[in-house]
TrEMBL record:
Protein name according to UniProt: Protein CBG15201
Keywords carried by this UniProt record: SH3 domain
Family named by the database record: Belongs to the MAGUK family.
Residues in Guanylate kinase-like domain copies: 342-546
SUPFAM superfamilies: P-loop containing nucleoside triphosphate hydrolases (SSF52540), PDZ domain-like (SSF50156), SH3-domain (SSF50044)
Record GO cellular component, one term: plasma membrane
Residue ranges of coiled coil: none
Domain (SH3) ranges: 220-307
Pfam family name, one: Guanylate_kin
Residue span, PDZ domain: 127-196
Length: 565
């Protein structure tokens, strides 16, 4: 019986003893036989509470429960908590749990299997084991190495067929595969033998490796990281076995199953972005088991060592590792926005992809929800400009002090005037609604903290043909709208009225710049969306933001210390 359940019974026992002691002071004290049954029920409850202690004799949980119910019914107690407990113990589901606990405590939870059969090789005089594995089209999940004509199991992949069998371990020596001796064979020949199995059954003849008890007791790690670089094992000359690897891109969520090896981690790819999740079993079958595959990827140590080929042994080298490891993987955890806190939405993208127009449309359509952080500037206000509406007007000296104090999210200079967005402006805007920003990519580092918990979405351009067509259609629509407004003497004070056509060269440059920017910042993006046309983009982006705000998402583990939830 679990300790927490025993603790619950102990708590109820305290109440029961208090009630038992208090019956003598009642106006209508119980009769002697009721006191006896009341005492018996308390003693039975004590037996429940003591189940967490080791006992030599077998205890019948169901009989204890029934005795408690019977004695307490006779005692005719008025205790609501005890009556609820009695009703609880009487339910069929709890009776089933008690029966299961009974069987487990007695050790009757598994069939009695015979000992693993071992044979004696008369030539070498050593014990060998015969292992038969059914793999049903799955990879074996093990790698081999050849040393001086002998073949050994080099690595067992976590959750693979070999690992699940529990019969093969690293450093086992392979003597035969399907009855064929493998001594002096090349790895490719052995792989061919594994492929020629009957009905998916592979038979191994192995010499067991000596088991290192410390390694056997060591638990495999299990954590999640976000990749911050692209990786192709076939382009990695360091990889001992590219066939046993997985490829990934920056921003992919990886599940690390085993990192006992200093250089190569056993990893499963979950998917891209903050909403990535492991596919269900039926989905895995449909996509060929991609999300189930476990492969070897380079560790942080190996990546850092590649940058510092002289080794990572000194204290300076360890500092190098600590300062550089976040360049490759970022620890993440799943977080659900239970308190409905507002998160800043950040749209990243190359100039010309339409981020600012998307933002203007959101402010127009969802004016009651999305808001803008009012920027600062050192230029003097123009006619009809009000401080705190279009800009916060201040002096150049004050803005320079804000920059020095690292109070600016981003800033720049245009025609001898400073412009920028202060972090305090973002905080104030968050009090009014969901802040929507389109900052320079270099500003991401300043806002990517738990305080703002930003949702970073990268906006891609469409391909060349779609880009040219949709922008021509949009320009024609805005031109007609501007003409109609002008004829009605309606002011059109938006940048959309100044829409111009992009040349073919400009479109190709935007697409190229976008690809380069995505390559550089994909690792910090929670999602990616293509801006084909504004109507489609608005619909998709609205749904995407809703999902990222309401569903469980991946967050950097370095934020855990600040969450406090």
């Amino acid at each position: 019986m679990p300790d927490n359940l025993s603790a619950i019974f102990e708590t109820i026992l305290d109440y029961a003893e208090e009630e038992a002691a208090g019956t003598s002071t009642c106006q209508n004290p119980p009769k002697q036989h009721q006191k006896l049954y009341h005492k018996n029920a308390v003693e039975i409850l004590e037996d429940f509470a003591l189940l967490k202690n080791e006992k030599k004799e077998e205890i019948s949980f169901q009989e204890l429960a029934q005795s408690f119910i019977d004695d307490w019914d006779v005692a005719n107690s008025k205790s609501i908590s005890i009556q609820q407990l009695s009703h609880f113990l009487s339910s069929p589901k709890i009776q089933g749990v008690l029966w299961a606990a009974q069987e487990i405590s007695a050790g009757r939870f598994a069939p009695q299997l015979p000992d693993v059969p071992f044979e004696v090789d008369e030539d070498d005089g050593v014990a060998v084991k015969i292992v038969r594995i059914v793999r049903r089209g799955e990879p074996l999940g093990a790698t081999i190495k050849c040393e001086r004509g002998k073949v050994y199991v080099a690595r067992i992949m976590a959750n693979g067929v070999a690992d699940r069998s529990g019969c093969i371990q690293e450093k086992d020596r392979v003597l035969e595969v399907n009855g064929v001796t493998v001594a002096d064979k090349e790895p490719r020949e052995i792989v061919n033998l594994l492929d020629k199995c009957d009905n998916g059954i592979i038979t191994f003849k192995l010499i067991p490796a000596e088991v290192n008890q410390k390694l056997k007791q060591k638990k495999s790690s299990h954590r999640y990281v976000r990749a911050l670089f692209d990786y192709d094992p076939w382009q990695d000359r360091r990889h001992p076995c590219p066939e046993a690897a997985i490829s990934f891109r920056a921003g992919d969520i990886l599940e690390i199953l085993d990192e006992k090896d200093q250089y190569w981690w056993q990893t499963r790819k979950i998917g891209f972005g903050a909403l990535a999740r492991r596919k269900e079993s039926h989905d895995e079958e449909q996509i060929g088991g991609e999300s189930k595959k476990v492969g070897l990827v380079p560790s942080e140590w190996l990546q850092c060592q590649s940058e510092n080929p002289d080794g990572l042994g000194s204290s300076d080298d360890l500092q190098f590792l600590e300062s550089h490891k976040d360049r490759y993987y970022e620890g993440v955890f799943r977080w659900r926005n239970k308190k409905k806190r507002r998160r800043v939405v950040v749209l990243l993208g190359a100039p010309g992809v339409g981020r600012n127009e998307i933002r203007r449309q959101f402010f127009k359509v969802f004016a009651d929800r999305f808001t803008n952080a009012i920027p600062h500037t050192s230029r003097p206000p123009r006619p009809n400009e009000t401080d705190g509406v279009s800009y916060h007007f201040t002096t150049r000296a004050e803005m320079e002090r804000m920059i020095e104090r690292k109070e600016m999210l981003e800033y720049g200079e245009f025609r001898d005037n400073l412009y920028g967005t202060a972090l305090q402006s973002v905080r104030r805007a968050s009090e009014r609604g969901t802040v929507l920003l389109t900052p320079h990519p270099l500003a991401i580092e300043n806002i990517r903290t738990w305080e703002f918990a930003p949702i970073v979405i990268f906006v891609q351009p469409p391909d060349f043909g779609e880009f040219k067509h949709t922008r021509e259609v949009y320009r024609a629509q805005t031109t007609r709208s501007h003409s109609a407004a002008s004829s009605s003497n309606v002011s059109q004070n938006t940048a959309a009225t100044n829409a111009r056509a992009f040349s073919d060269t400009e479109i190709r440059q935007i697409i190229e710049n976008s690809a380069q920017m995505e390559q550089k910042y994909r690792g910090v993006c929670d999602a990616i969306i293509r801006n084909v046309d504004f109507e489609t983009t608005m619909n998709e982006l609205t749904g995407l933001i809703y999902n990222l705000e309401s569903k469980a998402t991946w967050m950097p583990t370095k934020w855990l210390a600040d969450i406090g939830e």
